């Protein structure tokens, strides 16, 4: 392993995080939050110093490449570093006086989970609320992808890193050069950010609220600077804008790229996207049907159903209604959506539509084999053949996902939580969703969990965001064998 | 397809079921239940008549074989026929006046689920309670296996049938001839039945109670003729006997055969059995630890923990304690066990230990591939190589299992049940367990569900008992294509 190079890249990442800390610092200045301004400034100075020292100490003349082992280690360490640095402003400003809580909030931000330990969100200084939402935005597209996009430090190995971080079983290359791909992804992300912010401001939000809610939407994060989340505005227009952008964020960004390039047909040819839309439509209809009589008009039922369905499906976690007060069938549909997640190559978490879709097709193939044991059935998705080894990886992922969720369930339950709360806490953190059922419903928060549970949930969020293998592989003996 | 032959075998099965109906008829006579005696007699006469007519009408001179399609159809129809005939005594004796309920109870019996719609079990005539338990015993080892064992009607195709019915991904052949294997399995089953009945009678049970509880234990069923299940006796001795026999019933019967043949070492070499014992021991210890202070002594905690752990793990469903009153951690451990099940080749249901174990090993192999993409890692269990196509079938099974559980959850929730009740109802029926959490806890029953849910649950129990593929394959277009 090339530990030196790994830490050198980490030092660059520290620098990037420091750079992004300048934005909340500016907000602190703008909103006259002098105490927070000082805290941010000190943290930035320290981080830049550390990063520079590390960078020069680890200088090397040789042109170096990262092995796959280095890649996994580097991505894992990047996320840990980002979360630790990111937690400092909350902690040192005394806004979140307990470090575990500060780390939980930041990890929840970077992993785009959106689970919060804050009981009174609006009492936080604006600059910290902005930083809280910015962690979503950075984590959504991936901090390592960002590093790859910005810096020419990596020769070969970039794709390896993106694969270790990026969501979904396959990252199609848009361009032959990985750096170009990373740049295009970030540009689309930026474009969507500008678009949603403007649209939300049209709906009456001020710039601060529009921007932070946009971050939460596009990263499929779910942090809102309001105690009552998006429900605060009670505006049909805002609900629709956010619903649409949640769905866009949960779409494979390569499809966005194709749309921009004018290849409209590819959208309809994409089996994953069609399935994703189908699940959303079916869930929305089933829920609105069940909500008949709960809201005054059919339109309102549709509005709340679509928002909550998109929020859970894309693993965002925003709320405009306390779905725990809904009839049970609607709740069960949302519970089902907790097992799905966004598309591959999107900012959404969860198991991902492509995996569910492939596994269904594969299970069907298995039945065909039972009837014709000597035939060969090829698994095709969107016209492309899915290789057997990819199917293996997908099956392995699905099993590990359920396994991890159940283990986390038992650990959460050990702090005396009922089965429904424990299970949905596990689903909501491993899937990077945010709210669940029972004591962590959309009107609740994660503050009441004891510290050890919060640490386990931090781990669960990270493992979920980095698609299990990247983190879990570090715990295998095979990884550390020479 | 050879529909004629399929129905001919069904007619034999009807005859076998009629034969077994003689036992409750004898009990009816013994307990002076004249009304039930008449009902049983009429049903037997009708069934024998139907079966004979069918058998002779479908006579054929040619020696015929079953294709794999015929096999699936025949097994599915066998179970449906058995359940329909089995429901008649409950219905016509007016003990269960609603046919849906009667069918549910019988399906729950044959599939060894043990979910009951009876609110007042002890008020039923003894002969019907005996029949109720006998359905467990017949379904436990498999009514088709029984047919194969008894009758020389099938040339080739017997293994096909057993595979479609028998639990677990692989049925090792004990003897080269499938009929011999089926006979040996039933003889072991019979031997264990005699042993447990005698042991329970030593503990103070009368013959009737001992026999019915034995049926429920060895089939991993869970029907008890007592309202409070095994808890009625409140005897440490009885608890221990039943715990041990539940664990024996959840063990691969091939291991029993090897033990009888003196091959003791094979027990310890069997990875599935070791894992199975390990899970049981870990669960028992974790639960007893959590129950500290709940019961008066450590011994009592262990006794109740071991019984409930074995009951859920083996998918029996007997209860000596209302685990819904236990602390949440203990409940969560039991919830976790609901995802496991017995060993392959046992009478237990669920996903089965071997599948969980293989999937874990496979997931670990996937991580190795991430590090050494060009290497080849062979999956070995108990020293035997697991072929890739078997691993595929196992992954497909696991996915379909979870998928089915979630779909059933949503359907149950549509009858206004909360998420915990709905989910565990789905787990308890697909896994053939019986009790779950919420409104179907060990002190509750399934009576309150509306009819359409009961029909769906009947389907779920059957699909679970026949290991998904056998039933689900009938719903694929590929099955019905020429």
Helix fraction bin of chain A: 55-70%
SS-based structural class of chain A? mainly alpha
Structural shape of chain A: globular
Count of strand segments of chain A:
2
Count of discrete alpha- or pi-helical segments spanning 4 or more residues of chain A: 21
Low-pLDDT parts of chain A are 153-157
As an assembly, this protein is homodimer
Query: What is the element string of chain A, with H for helices and E for strands?
Result: HHHHHHHHHHHHHHHHEEHHHHH
Distance between the termini of chain A: 9 Å
Largest interface: A-B, 60 and 60 residues
Strand order across the largest sheet of chain A: 1-2
Proportion of strand residues of chain A? under 5%
Report mean pLDDT of chain A, rounded to a whole number.
89
The main sheet of chain A comes to: 2 strands, antiparallel
Cα gyration radius of chain A (Å): 22 Å
Structural notes for this entry:
The structure is a homodimer of 482-residue chains. The first copy, chain A, contains 21 helices and two strands. Chain A is mostly helical. Among the domains of chain A are: 3-223, no CATH class; 388-480. Chain A has a two-stranded antiparallel ribbon. In chain A, α6 crosses α8, α16 crosses α17 (388-413) and α18 (419-430) crosses α19 (451-465). The radius of gyration of chain A is 22 Å and the shape is globular. Chain A starts with a helix and ends with a helix. The model of chain A is unreliable at 153-157 (pLDDT under 50). Chains A and B meet through α3, α15, α16, α17 and α18 of A and α3, α15, α16, α17 and α18 of B.
């Amino acid at each position: 392993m090339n530990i030196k190079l790994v830490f050198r890249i980490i030092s660059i990442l520290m620098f990037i995080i420091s750079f992004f800390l300048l934005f909340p610092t500016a907000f602190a200045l703008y909103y006259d939050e002098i105490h927070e301004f000082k805290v941010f400034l000190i943290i930035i100075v320290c981080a830049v110093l550390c990063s520079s020292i590390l960078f020069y100490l680890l200088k090397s003349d040789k042109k170096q490449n990262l092995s796959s082992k280095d890649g996994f280690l580097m991505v894992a360490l990047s996320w840990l570093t980002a979360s630790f640095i990111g937690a400092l402003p909350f902690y040192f400003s005394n806004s979140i006086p307990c470090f575990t809580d500060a780390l939980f909030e930041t990890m929840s931000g970077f992993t785009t989970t959106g689970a919060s330990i804050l009981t009174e969100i609006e009492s936080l200084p604006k600059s910290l609320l902005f930083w809280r939402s910015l962690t979503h935005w950075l984590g959504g597209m991936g901090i390592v992808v960002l590093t790859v996009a910005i810096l020419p430090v990596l020769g070969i190995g970039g794709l390896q890193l993106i694969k270790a971080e990026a969501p979904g079983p396959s990252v199609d290359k848009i361009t032959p050069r990985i750096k170009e791909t990373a740049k295009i992804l970030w540009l689309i992300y930026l474009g969507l950010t500008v678009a949603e912010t403007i649209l939300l401001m049209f709906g009456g939000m001020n710039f601060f609220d529009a921007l932070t809610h946009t971050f939460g939407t596009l990263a499929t994060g779910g942090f809102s600077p309001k105690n009552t989340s998006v429900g605060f505005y009670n505006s049909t227009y805002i609900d629709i804008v956010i619903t649409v952008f949640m769905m866009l964020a949960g779409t494979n960004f390569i499809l966005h790229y194709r749309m921009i390039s004018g290849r409209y047909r590819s959208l309809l040819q994409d089996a994953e996207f069609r399935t994703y839309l189908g699940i959303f439509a079916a869930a929305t209809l089933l829920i609105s049907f069940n909500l008949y009589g709960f809201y005054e008009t059919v339109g309102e039922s549709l509005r709340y159903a679509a928002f909550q369905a998109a929020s859970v499906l894309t693993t965002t976690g925003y709320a405009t209604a306390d779905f725990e007060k809904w009839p049970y069938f609607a709740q069960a549909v949302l519970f089902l959506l907790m097992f799905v997640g966004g598309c591959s190559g999107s900012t959404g978490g969860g198991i991902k539509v492509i995996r569910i879709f492939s596994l269904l097709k594969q299970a069907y193939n298995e039945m065909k084999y039972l009837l014709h044991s000597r035939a060969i059935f090829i698994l095709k998705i969107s016209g492309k053949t899915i290789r057997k080894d990819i199917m293996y990886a997908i099956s392995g992922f699905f099993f590990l996902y359920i396994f991890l969720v159940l283990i986390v369930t038992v650990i959460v339950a050990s702090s005396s939580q009922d089965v429904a709360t424990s299970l949905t806490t596990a689903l909501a953190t491993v899937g990077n969703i945010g709210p669940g059922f029972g004591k962590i419903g959309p009107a609740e928060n994660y503050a009441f969990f004891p510290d050890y549970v919060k640490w386990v949930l931090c781990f669960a969020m990270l493992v979920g965001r980095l698609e299990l293998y990247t983190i879990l592989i570090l715990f295998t003996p095979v990884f550390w064998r020479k």
